[in-house]
Write a structure and sequence with these properties.
archaeoglobus fulgidus dsm 4304 fold, endonuclease, metal-binding, alpha+beta, 27% helix
Length: 229
Amino acid sequence: MDFRHEFEVEQNQLKNQIDLSNHFEDSDIRYVAGVDLAYWTENDKEYGVACLVVIDRENLQVVEEVSFHDEITVPYLPGFLAFRELPLILEAVKLLKIKPDLYMFDGNGYLHPRHMGIATHASFFLGKPTIGVAKNYYHIEGAEFVLPDNYEGACTEIVKNGEIYGQVLRTHQNVKPIFISCGNWIDIETSQKFVLEFVTKESRLPVTTRYADILTHKERKKLSGITND
């Protein structure tokens, strides 16, 4: 069964509700969650695990981490990843004792053909501001980019038809840049500020999504028996 049409209808309905302005004061943001997923196949069935790692903004320490795994029943369709991932993410969120003030997703938000990457789509169910942080560029036709200069904090904008879809951000000198985008209820300047605030010298990625990524590999290995990652 091809779900593309009904998925696209839902995305377009939600797209009209996106608001790329800050719906909070800086002092409102204390706990920030990183979100990532990993997949594996077992007995011809596909499974996924969603992991959330909550970081205390005051000291960048992990204060909570949770995971939830289940069978994946929605097929992979480019541009509609949220429909596969969101059910697991929302179940993992229910396990949290500490409620995050902001979520950073290993993936995209507004940087999407219909501006409905996982970070944006999830915001409507989480009720919190969100940011997309991607390791690689999800190509959007007509939205090319120029690499930023080679210094920490350098960035260029990803623009299509005069509209900013996201940023290419270099978090350290001499490292590959990352691709950030607003999810919802936050502007691009503030998104960049928070991403850089959570980057340490150990990685080009913010600790939020970096630790979530590490946890997904650990959980997938434990659940599936996969030993080579």
